[in-house]
Specification:
Largest sheet of chain A: 8 strands, mixed
Strand content of chain B: 15-25%
Order of helices and strands of chain A: EEEHEEHEHHHHEHEHEEHHEE
Number of strands of chain B: 12
Distance between the termini of chain A: 19 Å
Distance between the termini of chain B: 17 Å
Chains: A alpha/beta (about 325), B alpha/beta (about 350), C alpha+beta (about 450)
Number of strands of chain A: 12
Strand order of the largest sheet of chain A: 6-7-8-3-9-10-12-11
Oligomer: heterotrimer
């Protein structure tokens, strides 16, 4: 706790206009991230986790309705920056991203090396030769043979492409790397390889990771802390150890119980019903309709309670245990 | 073993009567090769997607085929569905219908005996048809003319996949329902012609964690009530336990280990199976502190697979002079448990 | 039904599409009006008719709306038959013979001289022709006597050809002389009540004489007239259904057939696909217009022949390549695989699974394609290869250019069909491009 926070997000909102109304994809999210810390945002499809990544990296589509809140990176507020300032000072220089499907993220007609060198040339203004040397260093670091620099993306396997995308995100030595489902399209062994790589990089370089995923098992490989998102909101913020041992929020508990496990014979369960629409979310607790522990109070929206052991949970069940 | 027996049985079969003790489906030394052509013509080798695969599936039995992408499991599946033709070997249905010898009419009949559940539920449903039309299509193709009979069947099958009230879902288009419901429609479509065999290709890998188990349980329930044979194709070992009795592990076009589920999870024999098991994680905070053991390299090209055991270039237990020279046969390593690995000679 | 409603709601978000749709609606209404008021046979009869149909119409008259933009009001055509209330008849006996005197009163309030003046006579007699004397009385009381004549059963008297009048009027043309103030140069109109007095002396008891005065104006109707006195409105009206029908049929025929052929080719692949691709490539380098000109010159200029030829030549066009590229993608869709796995045959897959997926691409393409064919038909007509009997916009332009319309200042003759063509093109394009934007985002899902 003595550490200075790297990223502080306060009441971040990102709404989209759609034909049927306003989609409240990210609805008032608060969290902090420390230097050299890996935080996992866990959530199911449509919970707003990818929209949050876009909001942080300011890769916004045209139909944005609201984009508000405060995001402090090393004390600098980002939301109030102009697009041009953001592009020049923050994107890829301070915050970079490994996108979901690396095969689509790489330009198919450019050599991989040139693509990895590109951010260096754009943001640090180095010459191409120098940038390529740095790209080669980065390739070595992520375990891609250096002679792959001159290859085209289609000549690389899925795992190699994902490594190249990681190299591209790391080459500018950013403070924060957002990993958007970095392994979901990969095979088991490749997935394990990439997670090994990320763990090693985290030990070697003082970079913070924000890992966005729906895969709880994989997320446990990297997480220092965990945030669970449901219907546009964070419902639980916890350290990884306590979360994976005994999560607090009923949704987290249910989600954990739904994961089929290889090393346990426990029957997995499923959550009845579907997440609410983000166009007209319910006024009370958003999980109430599916929650087995629902009681009268759930009709009002719960605040984020500070649990005694430092965790935060958005559920009325923890009102009494909350630290005031 | 069983394969040879079935062949013998088949040959002694003179008449047309179905053999009651014959397996529902018998894969016999199946090879599915695709020719590579250079500039549209001129032979440039074969992609040996499936290379000598044999197994039997009994009526009412669920087996899982586990492997990584590119291991040939999709080609195997498509051959079982009658969409690919075997290059060598055969797929025998109910002990007498050989897929390599089927004429157009028999093939169409056979395809109706096999239901197909696909991976991507959204892509598997034509976006311009509503649920009712989607479910009617197979019946129209199968020649069920009577509209009321079709509707009756749709009601029955949608109730079975727990999409009730049925009327509410019939006019909906795929994009109007959730991923889990889309997958239920896909399952309903696979079930509507009352097949004997269900082929499920990664049926839950594109779904959210909270729905996955629901769909797997639904499939399991259907399998039990209808006494279906099920081939469950997946890359994810953690879901296999809840679904099937036996597991076949595929690597580079071949089955390297066949085993009952619990045996495999606790006592895997083949080094590749070990690697797969080690790479699969369960949610556990301790994961973050350890690195996983992953065999080096990548799966081989199916055009020029390595000589001997196809896993030998990546294998930590390689026996030089044996594994890189001779193709390992299936060694019996336990009851109903075989591994194609020289370690168990 | 719901899908249609949704489509309309989406279209309403694009102002250009709404404008396009409104114009198309008006064009269709215009076309329906044309077909309803002038039946097909009637339209052809009118358009091919000569003096017997168009005798009372002025030659090369501007549309009436040109008067709105000019301070000088050009005259409209004045037709006075003997039973008109502006005509007074009296009968008197001259000896034993009857004489009819007809007074034609003309209230002339225009700022320009009429184009020409003709009196059409009809007479009934046994042997002896009636004898006619005529005089022209101006508002200020001057009397101009004209040549005397005997009329046959059907006869015309053209003022311009009257030698006696010509001699009297001298410096001006006859029509100018009749309506001008005396001794003023340049000739200036005298407004007011004119009178034409026709007296017919009849020599037989059962003789009848009737006369119709036509003072041809310089403006006519909404569209003006051409060199053959034909009312251009007939062509403007009938051009609409012909252009729309041709454009829609050609666009529909080519896009639907192209799509089916592309679907067949990409589904079966192999030799079928190869053949279709080679035909397309050959067809792409064939010059369409010269071929159509040859067909028109050597074979038939019937609009149906040309339509058939246009469709035949446009099926194997670049759209086949576009459709094929999309089909090759759709072909791999899991739902097609599913359809094969439950035994759907090739035709069923092509028509119920492949083609419906492409409708979103087809509709904008079809709408954008319509003006292309409308223009093609017009271009052929301009080149003199229009349908020989039908009145079309293109043929009007062809007539106009043949008669040197622009050189002679008859700009309306070219302008009107051109504007109609342009509006048609614009309307379909505006709608088509909006439809493209509405439909194509969904294509990203392919």
């Amino acid at each position: 706790m003595a550490e200075k926070t790297l990223l502080r997000v306060e009441d971040l909102k990102l709404y989209f206009r759609a034909t049927r109304g306003i989609v409240q994809a990210v609805d008032g999210v608060n969290f902090t991230l420390n230097p050299n810390e890996a935080m996992v945002i866990i959530g199911e499809s449509g919970c707003g986790k990818s929209s949050m990544a876009r909001a942080l990296l300011r890769l916004l589509p045209r139909n944005v309705h609201t984009y508000s809140g405060k995001v402090y990176l090393n004390g600098t507020e980002l939301i109030s920056m102009s697009d041009e300032e953001y592009r020049q000072q923050i994107r890829w220089l301070k915050i970079s991203m490994v996108p979901q499907a690396a095969m689509n993220a790489l330009n198919p007609v450019l050599r991989v090396g040139d693509q990895v060198a590109e951010p260096m040339m754009v943001h640090h203004g180095v010459r191409k030769e120098e940038a390529l040397v740095q790209a080669a260093n980065m390739f070595q670091r992520v375990g891609v043979p250096v002679d792959f620099l001159t290859r085209y993306p289609f000549e690389l396997s899925g795992g190699m492409r994902q490594r190249a995308a990681i190299a591209m995100a790391l080459v500018t030595a950013p403070d924060l790397v957002i990993l958007d489902e970095p392994t979901s399209a990969l095979d088991v062994l490749t997935q394990a390889n990439i997670m090994n790589l990320l763990k090693r990089i985290k030990k070697e370089i003082a970079t913070s990771f924000l890992l966005i995923t729906h895969d709880i098992a994989t997320s446990s490989e990297l997480a220092d802390r965990v945030a669970v998102m449901y219907a546009g909101q964070i419902v639980e913020l916890s350290d990884a150890y306590r979360f994976f041992t005994a999560p607090l929020h009923p949704y987290s508990q249910k989600l954990m119980a739904s994961v089929p496990k290889l090393r346990s014979t426990m029957e997995p369960e499923f959550i009845i019903g579907q997440p609410p629409s983000l166009i007209n979310p319910p006024t009370g607790c958003r999980f109430a309709a599916r929650c087995p522990l629902r009681f009268e109070k759930c009709d009002q929206e719960p605040p984020m309670f500070q649990h005694v052991d430092g965790r935060q949970v958005k559920c009325w069940l923890y009102e009494k245990e909350a630290r005031s | 073993m069983t394969v040879q027996e079935t062949v013998v049985q088949k040959e002694t079969l003179a008449g047309n009567e179905a053999v009651s003790d014959a397996p529902l489906l018998s894969i016999q030394h199946l090879r599915v090769w695709f020719e590579l052509r250079r500039f549209g013509f001129g032979h440039a080798g074969y992609v040996k997607a499936v290379d000598d695969v044999s197994f039997d599936l009994q009526q009412g039995e669920a087996v899982a085929v586990v492997g990584e992408s590119g291991c040939g499991k999709s080609s195997l599946m498509k051959t079982i569905l009658g969409l690919n033709r075997p290059t060598q070997g055969d797929v025998v249905f109910q002990g007498k219908y050989r897929i390599s010898q089927m004429d157009g009419k028999t093939l169409r009949w056979y395809r109706r005996q096999v239901g197909y559940v696909q991976q991507d539920p959204y892509g598997a449903l034509p976006p311009f048809m509503n649920v009712q039309r989607i479910l009617e299509e197979p019946m129209i193709v199968a020649g069920i003319r009577d509209k009321s009979e079709r509707l009756e069947r749709i009601h029955k099958v949608l109730t079975e996949v727990k999409m009730t009230p049925v009327e509410e879902y019939l006019p909906k288009f795929p994009h109007m329902i959730s991923g889990g419901q889309q997958q239920r429609v896909v399952i309903a479509r696979a079930m509507i012609l009352e097949p004997k065999l269900l082929v499920a290709d990664e049926p839950v890998s594109m779904l959210d964690a909270s729905v996955r188990v629901e769909i797997l349980k639904l499939l399991r329930g259907l399998q039990e009530t209808h006494n279906l044979g099920v081939i469950y194709i997946t890359h994810d070992l953690s879901t296999v336990r809840y679904f099937s009795e036996r597991i076949f592990v595929m690597y580079a076009g071949q089955i390297v280990e066949k085993s009952p589920v619990e045996n495999l999870l606790h006592d895997a024999k083949h080094p590749y199976t070990h690697a797969l098991l080690a790479a699969t994680s369960d949610p556990d905070a301790r994961n973050a502190e350890t690195f996983k053991e992953v065999p080096p390299g990548e799966p081989p090209s199916l055009v020029k697979p390595p000589a001997g055991c196809r896993f030998h270039p990546r294998c930590p237990h390689i026996i030089r002079g044996e594994c890189d020279v001779n193709v390992p046969p299936e060694f019996e390593v336990g009851p109903d448990h075989t591994a194609a690995c020289w370690l168990y000679k | 039904m719901n899908a249609l409603k949704n489509a309309f709601r989406e279209i309403s978000q694009y102002p250009s599409a709404v404008v396009g749709l409104v114009i198309i609606g008006l064009l269709v209404a215009f076309a329906v009006y044309a077909v309803a008021t002038i039946p097909y046979n009637e339209a052809i009869r009118l358009w091919r008719g000569g003096e017997e149909v168009w005798g009372d119409y002025p030659r090369n008259a501007s549309p009436a709306w040109t008067n709105w933009f000019s301070a000088k009001k050009k005259p409209e055509t004045i037709i006075l038959t003997s039973d008109d209330e502006r005509v007074k008849k009296e009968t008197q006996m001259v000896g034993s013979n009857q004489e009819i005197i007809m007074h034609y009163f003309i209230d002339y309030q225009y700022d320009d001289f009429p184009e020409e003046m003709i009196i059409f006579f009809t007479a009934k007699y046994d042997v002896k022709q009636p004898h006619i004397t005529m005089k022209w009385i101006t508002p200020d009381g001057r009397e101009l006597r004209m040549s005397q004549m005997s009329v046959r059963q059907s006869d015309q008297y053209r003022f311009e050809l009257d030698e006696r009048l010509k001699r009297r009027i001298k410096d001006m043309s006859v029509t100018q002389g009749l309506f001008a103030l005396p001794d003023v140069t340049p000739p200036t109109i005298q407004k007011g009540q004119y009178e034409l007095q026709i007296s017919a002396l009849m020599f037989e008891p059962n003789t009848e004489v009737d006369a119709k005065l036509v003072i041809y104006g310089k403006v006519h109707g909404l569209a003006g007239t051409d060199h053959l006195r034909r009312d251009l409105m007939v062509a403007m009206l009938w051009g609409a259904p012909i252009a729309l029908a041709f454009g829609i049929l050609a666009a529909l025929g080519t896009s639907v057939l192209s799509m089916i052929i592309a679907a067949v080719g990409s589904w079966f692949g192999g030799a079928v696909d190869e053949i279709i691709q080679r035909i397309t490539e050959v067809n792409l380098v064939l010059p369409v217009l010269p071929i159509l000109i040859m067909i028109g010159t050597l074979y038939s200029r019937s609009i149906w022949t040309i339509l058939g030829a246009v469709v035949a030549l446009s099926i194997f066009s670049s759209s086949i390549k576009t459709f094929r590229a999309i089909f090759l993608q759709i072909k791999e869709a899991p739902y097609i695989e599913a359809a094969r796995s439950y035994g759907a045959g090739n035709l069923r897959i092509i028509f119920t699974y492949l083609i419906p997926r492409l409708i979103p691409v087809l509709i904008p393409g079809f709408v954008i394609g319509i003006p292309t064919y409308v223009f093609l038909e017009a271009s052929l007509a301009v080149l003199g290869l229009g349908d020989p009997v039908l009145p079309t916009w293109g043929k009007v332009i062809n007539d106009a250019s043949a008669q040197g319309a622009l050189f002679n200042g008859y700009y309306y003759w070219v302008l009107q069909p051109a504007v109609l063509l342009m509006i048609t093109g614009l309307a379909f394009s505006m709608l088509g491009f909006a439809l493209d934007r509405i439909f194509n985002p969904r294509l990203r899902g392919v």
